[in-house]
Structures are given as structure tokens and as C-alpha cells.
Amino acid sequence: MADYAAEAPAALDVNTSGNATDSAIAYLQDEKPDADMTHLNLGELDLTTDEYILDEVDIHIQANLEDDLVKEALKTGVDLRQYSKQVEVELQRIEQVSIRDYIKESQNIALLHNQITACDAILERMEGMLSGFQSDLSSISSEIQTLQQQSVSMNVRLKNRQAIRSHLSQLVDELVVPGAMISTILESPVMEQDFLEQLHELNNKINFAKELSFRETLACSDIQDIVDRLKIKAVSKIREFILQKIYSFRKPMTNYQIPQNTLLKYRFFYQFLLANERTVAKEIRDEYVDTMSKIYYSYFKSYSSRLLKVQYEEVADKDDLMGVEDTAKKDIL
């Protein structure tokens, strides 16, 4: 009996060592009759032990008495002790069968245990990966919020830039002195249409530079020198051109109305001089007034001298004109 009890725990404990399964299989191969297995020491698995909790005995008895089979047995007069022994024997048989089935499946159970362990390791790695992914998502979420804030800030800056774009474009256009303007003012004759157009642009830039200088804008200093030089060159060419036209009035037998009409086409020249160089404008005006006064003086002097000559001419009498009396006056004035 002691040998049998020593062999049974070794056969039942399949998880304590690596040879537990082999020992259980060897034990089953030397399987003893069912009569001997009734004396098997099952430890905690033994259902015939009397170590019950006393506080729960009454509850179990009351529950058993309420069972339909127990009631039926009591009615028919069946001996409950004999019936309980039969039930006990049946339970022991079922228990032994379950143990043999468990031992037979010990290898599969061990394999399942290994598989479960491997699955636990895989799930643990997946848990680590998911934790890392969750932390990455948290960082990505914070980055997205940062990008959203930056996007809102950039949108505000874009709207502000678009709002001042037109003003800045106009400012830059006014500050830039094109190369075409420089070459035209320096090289083209004043009679050409291109010179007149560029002179208008130069006048606008001069006025704009004056406005910026009043506002103490630093960008004004970048173009002030170039604009001043172009203004001096334009004033010099305009002065020479207008003075030549005025001097042409002084030639004898000249129809002064023709050069006067020519000067009317370039009246903006005098406006430019009057706005930017009043000394030269005054010089040209004085020269024009002096020249025209001399011309008109000579014309009126010649006209008056011719009128005086008319006083000494003979007056028509009655022989020259019909209906004229002899008492006509000699003085026609």
C-alpha cells in the first residue's frame, strides 16, 4: 500500500519535473485492477474525506434533502447509506477515469502549456509595441496640435501680408528707378514722346521722394541721389530747348506764332521747371517776356509809324469821289 501511494503522486504530478509524463505513462502501463485503485491516496482530490467545514454541513444537508432524487429515494424506502456508497464508488471510478484521461493527455497539455507560454511572450512583445505606438500617437497628437497652431499663425501672417501687399507693391514701384528712364532722360532728345513720358514718371518719383523724406523713410535715401541727378539733367536739357525756341523768335521776318504753338505742345516742360527748379523757370519766363516785349514793341512801332505817314497823303476831292463836297476836311484824323 505504501509503494502504491508513493507511485501515485509521482504519476499525478506532471508539472514538477521533465520526467513526470513518462512516469505517469509507465504507471498506466502497469495498471492495477480497479479493486486496488480504491485504496489510492488522492489527497485533495479524494471526495470521501470527512474534512468539511462544519458551518456548511447543515446547508449541504438541507440542499440534498430538497433534491428530487433524494426525495424520491426517501419515498421509496431506499437505503441512503447503500445508495451513497454506490454513488461514492461511481464517483471514484469516474475520478480514476478522469485521471487516466488527464495522464494520457499530459503530453498535449505540456505542449499546450508551452504554446501558451510562447503566446504570452508574443502578447507581451505586442503589448510593448502597442505601448510604444500609443506613446508615438501621443507625441504625434502633440505635434499635430503644434502644427495647427503654427498653421493658424501662418494664416494670420498671410492675411496681413496680403493686406499690405498692394501698399508695398506701390511703394516698391515708386522707389525703383528703371533703366529705361535713366537712358531716356540722359540720351533722348526732348522733342521725342518717350522723353516726355519719362519726364512725367520722373516728376512722380520726385514728388514721392519728397513725401518719403517728410516721413523720414530710410528707403528714400536709396533713390534720392539718382533722382536728383536725373532732375538736374532734365532741367538742363529743357532749359536749353526752350531758350533755343525763344531765341528763334528774334530772327527777322519770323512768324513767331509757329514756335509759340510748338512750345504749347511742351507746356509740361515749364510745369516741371516750376515745380522742381524755380530759378530756371523764372529765367525762362523773363527771357520769354523780354523777347516778346521787344517783338511786340517793334511791331507796334512800325504800325504807328505807318499810321503817321497816312496823315500827309492827299485827300480825295469831288473829282475823285462822287457825292463828296469841296469843303471836305484836310485832316483825316
From TrEMBL:
What are the Vps52 C-terminal domain coordinates in residue numbering?
Answer: 290-330
Mind listing the UniProt keywords for this protein, alphabetically? Answer: Golgi apparatus, Protein transport, Transport
**What is one GO cellular-component annotation here?**
GARP complex
Source species, please?
Solea senegalensis (Senegalese sole)
Q: Name one GO biological process term.
A: Golgi to vacuole transport
> Which Gene Ontology terms cover its molecular function?
syntaxin binding
**Entry's localization field:** Golgi apparatus, trans-Golgi network
InterPro entries xref list: Vps52, Vps52_C, Vps52_CC
Cited PANTHER family: SUPPRESSOR OF ACTIN MUTATIONS 2/VACUOLAR PROTEIN SORTING 52, VACUOLAR PROTEIN SORTING-ASSOCIATED PROTEIN 52 HOMOLOG
- Entry similarity comment: Belongs to the VPS52 family.
What is the recorded name of this protein?
Vacuolar protein sorting-associated protein 52 homolog
Signal peptide residue numbers = none
Q: Vps52 coiled-coil domain: which residues?
A: 101-273
